[in-house]
Amino acid sequence: MRITSDPKKNRLTSDEKYISRCIEIAQNALGTAAPNPAVGAVIVYKNKIIGEGHTSAYGGPHAEVNAIQSVADTSLLTAATLYVTLEPCSHFGQTPPCADLIVKFGIPKIVIGLVDPHEKVAGNGIKKLTDAGCKVLTGILEKECREHHKRFLTFHEQKRPYIILKWAETLDGFIAPEKAKRATAAEPYWITSTYARQLVHQWRSQEQGILVGTNTVLEDNPKLNVRLWEGKNPLRIVLDRSLKIQEDRYVLDRSIPSLVLTEVADTSKYLDGIQYELIDFSKDIAQQICRILWKHKLTSVLIEGGAKTIQTFIDEELWDEARVFIGTTYFKIGTKAPSLSRSSIETKKIGVNALKIYRND
Predict the structure, then answer these.
(1) What is the average per-residue pLDDT within 258-278?
(2) Which of 91, 113, 127, 232 has the highest local Cβ count within 10 Å?
(3) Can you say how many angstroms the Cα of residue 360 is from the centroid of all Cα atoms in its chain?
(4) Among this protein's residues, is 178 annotated catalytic?
(5) Burial of 119 (0-12, 13-18, 19+ CB in 10 A)
(6) Who contacts 26 (Cβ-Cβ below 8 Å, separation ≥6)?
(7) pLDDT at residue 225 tops 80
(8) Residue 69 — left, alpha, or beta (φ > 0 → left; ψ -120 to 50 → alpha)?
(9) 332: alpha, beta or left, given left = phi > 0 and alpha = psi -120 to 50?
(10) How many whole angstroms separate alpha carbon 215 and alpha carbon 32?
(11) Cα 349 from Cα 361, distance rounded (Å)
(12) What is the pLDDT, as a whole number, of residue 2?
């Protein structure tokens, strides 16, 4: 993440520097903290960091708790400053309120990047701190904190997951080759390099869900797990209108949780150990999917294909970010890649492949 600085000084202020560090360590909580936000916290005493922490896996301690517990000499806290990317919570959830702990240890100053939009917090944490006599400063690197917390914010402000579209296409704009080029067995036809695929597995570890359509499962038989990176597997979400996918496919092997979206209401056709939800495939598919995933408390989902599934989200304007790899080969014929009517905001070199980033702002 790029951190902007004060143009007049051409460098970060002291407060910005420590909030920047909070954002940096908060990255470690992506994919594990959800549906809680991936918060980062830093404790500073006399211009020296004496404690750091990020949100633990869901159900565990929050960033502020971990940061306080990491301080060797807690007597210093009464003269220290706590920096945090998001407003400390003020309510009892899986854990006690962080604001109460901050007050208990007598931390006199709290610097916050972003006010929490969650209805159970939304300024109440700040009020609890100020009522206790703490000095509270907000809005430090707010734009950067919003970018980091984009999944949590989208979930609470728009009542849907943060949606990332991802695909790879050839130099001539195809996402898959003609059937004659494919192997007899159902397996992926790779357009990108191993290095690019490893990056995709890192992305998978950061999101709560990964979604594909029926044809992708039938033709590629993807595992949709995290193999080339250390991290948590996302929920596998599969569109299967008439339950055409057979039990021998990886997505139904029960090795990790899977959710099938179908219009088949006959539960006798459902497999044990697989979750099912009904949608109407004749209208607003993406909107229905978003409502279901919000109900399942998924703050983010990676849409990995195929072309028809991805285009559905594009056409319904239900996406936030697109990550498009460009390969080094030509197919000439095959399945055309999805179409985005906008320019990329950034292009990166990932080994031999180009990666184009799009935002739906």
Answers:
(1) 98
(2) 113
(3) 16
(4) no
(5) exposed
(6) 38, 39, 40, 54, 55, 63, 85, 148
(7) yes
(8) alpha
(9) left
(10) 30
(11) 24
(12) 44
What does the pLDDT read at residue 93?
A: 64
Q: How far apart are CA 36 and CA 151, in angstroms?
A: 10
Measure CA 34 to chain center.
8
Instruction: Copy the structure tokens of residue 18.
Output: 């420590």
SS3 69: helix
When pLDDT is averaged across residues 223-239 and rounded to a whole number, the result is: 96
Mean pLDDT, rounded, for 341-356:
96
The one catalytic residue in 64, 87, 207, 304 is 64
Cβ atoms of residues 280 and 288 within 8 Å: yes
HEC secondary structure over 288-311: HHHHHHHHCCCCEEEEEECHHHHH
Q: Is the pLDDT of residue 298 over 70?
A: yes
Identify the residue whose tokens are 């309510």.
Answer: 91
Q: pTM for this structure? A: 0.92
Residue 7 has pLDDT above 80, yes or no: no
| Block residue for tokens 């001539």 | 172
Closest to 309 (Cα-Cα) out of 171, 203, 217 = 217
Alpha carbon distance 240, 263 (integer Å): 8
User: What is the C-alpha to C-alpha distance for residues 354 and 352, in angstroms, rounded to an integer?
Assistant: 7
Do residues 144 and 116 touch, judged by C-beta distance below 8 A? Answer: no
Residue with tokens 């301690």: 61
Q: Which amino acid is at 339?
A: S
Q: End-to-end alpha-carbon separation of the chain, Å? A: 17
Confidence label for 188 from pLDDT (cuts 50, 70 and 90): confident
d(CA 30, CA 148): 10
Reduced to 3 states, what is the DSSP secondary structure of residue 212? strand
- Least confident window among 2-6, 7-11, 26-30: 2-6
Indicate the helix (H) or strand (E) that contains 64.
Answer: helix 63-69
Can the peptide bond before residue 35 be classed as cis, meaning omega within 30 degrees of 0? Answer: yes
